């Protein structure tokens, strides 16, 4: 965990000119419910593309480069349980290169450094609200707000983040459905059902967490076993759902496949035959890969970078179609 902490706390910046279509990067603080969310931003920049480092992580971006002139779509990016704001930096950079501003909060109460609400029903309530708070903050930002086209706002989420973005378009979780699933299917979906904290789920009805500003979402290996019949009856927003066939954390057919069936014509299911649950996370530096465990390892013969290249193109293409520029 020491190296992982460096990723968020130790910032070493170096920029080298590479190509003209630059991407800027910065962190901002977002206040929500008395807590601060550290939120990473990537955006089209008025600078040649650079190479920068943040702790042990490197990425093709320029530190605090001025945003490029024009108006752009905005994509919220939600990591999974125990993750961080830099988990999906390759996806964020690809979207920024494609003309989107990308905002990735580190979810308070459900990140690598703060798991206070992980495995509880409160977590399912808090995560979507945090994403909406980030959107509020950015639309009101004096520098970036005028660069955002409010008619072109989307969201991408992985695992618990996949649930989070689906809640933003009206997906209603039900703790009774979740409890029934893990009573009946615990042996068939063991890792997911082992995630819940004893006594962490209450019987309180899940509120409506929909944010009408969201026009399209992508959910990669999303948590789906907490959605029951009618969970998406109020959702009419296009969604691209990615099923990772080698996923052993969220076993099918109770997650991605289940969501796609519930959403019907509004969902497009994309199946990746060899991908595992953590394949959507940008590869870790070699020195960290073993330290972070299964998150950093790939099955023999699986090329995570090649997978990410393909899926990032699919995600950008989906947003270009669903949230077209004027």
Q: What strand order characterises the main sheet? A: 5-1-2-7-6-8-9-10-11
Overall shape: it is globular
Report the sheet-strand fraction. Answer: 15-25%
- Quaternary structure annotation: single chain
Biggest sheet, open or closed, and with what strands and sense? 9 strands, mixed
* Overall SS class: alpha/beta
| Overall radius of gyration | 19 Å
Our count of helices gives: 9
- Give the N-to-C terminal Cα separation: 45 Å
SSE order, as H and E? HEEEEEEHEHEHHHEEHEHH
**Mean pLDDT score, rounded?**
91
Tell me roughly what share of residues is in helical segments.
25-40%
| DSSP strand count | 11
Unreliable stretches: 1-20
Concise structural overview:
The chain has 326 residues and is α/β, with parallel strands linked by helices. It has helices spanning 2-9, 89-97, 121-139, 160-168, 175-184, 190-193, 256-263, 286-289, 304-322; strands spanning 23-32, 35-44, 52-54, 57-59, 62-63, 72-78, 100-105, 148-158, 216-220, 239-244, 267-272.
Structure description:
This protein has 326 residues and is α/β, with parallel strands linked by helices. The chain contains 9 helices and 11 strands. It has a 9-stranded mixed β-sheet with strand order 5-1-2-7-6-8-9-10-11, sandwiched between helices. The chain has a two-stranded antiparallel ribbon with strand order 3-4. Helix 7 (256-263) links the parallel strand 10 and strand 11 (267-272). Helix 2 packs across helix 9. The longest helix has 19 residues, at 121-139. The radius of gyration is 19 Å and the shape is globular. Residues 1-20 have low confidence and may be disordered.
């Amino acid at each position: 965990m020491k190296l992982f902490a460096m990723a968020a706390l130790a910032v070493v910046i170096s920029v080298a000119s590479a190509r003209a279509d630059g991407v800027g990067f910065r962190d901002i603080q977002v206040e929500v419910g008395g807590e601060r969310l550290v939120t990473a931003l990537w955006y089209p920049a008025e600078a040649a593309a650079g190479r920068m480092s943040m702790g042990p992580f490197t990425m093709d971006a320029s530190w605090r480069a001025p945003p490029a002139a024009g108006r752009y779509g905005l994509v919220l990016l939600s990591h999974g349980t125990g993750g961080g704001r830099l988990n999906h930096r390759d996806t964020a950079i690809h979207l920024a290169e494609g003309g989107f501003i990308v905002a990735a909060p580190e979810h308070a109460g459900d990140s690598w450094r703060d798991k206070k609400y992980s495995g509880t029903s409160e977590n399912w309530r808090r995560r979507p609200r945090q994403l909406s708070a980030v959107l509020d903050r950015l639309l009101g930002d004096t520098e970036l707000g005028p660069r955002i086209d409010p008619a072109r706002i989307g969201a991408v989420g992985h695992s618990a983040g996949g649930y989070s973005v689906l809640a933003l378009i009206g997906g209603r979780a039900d703790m009774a459905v979740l409890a029934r699933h893990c009573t009946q299917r615990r042996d068939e979906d063991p890792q997911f059902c082992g995630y819940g904290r004893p006594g962490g789920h209450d019987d309180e009805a899940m509120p409506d967490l929909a944010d009408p500003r969201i026009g399209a979402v992508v959910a990669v290996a999303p948590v789906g076993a907490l959605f029951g019949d009618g969970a998406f009856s109020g959702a009419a927003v296009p969604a691209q759902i990615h099923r990772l066939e080698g996923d052993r954390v969220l076993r099918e057919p109770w997650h991605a496949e289940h969501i796609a069936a519930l959403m019907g014509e509004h969902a497009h299911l994309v199946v990746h035959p060899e991908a595992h649950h953590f394949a959507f996370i940008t590869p870790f530096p070699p020195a960290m890969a073993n330290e972070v465990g299964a998150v950093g390892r790939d099955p023999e013969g699986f090329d995570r970078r090649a997978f990410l290249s393909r899926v990032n193109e699919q995600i950008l293409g989906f947003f270009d179609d669903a949230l077209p520029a004027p």
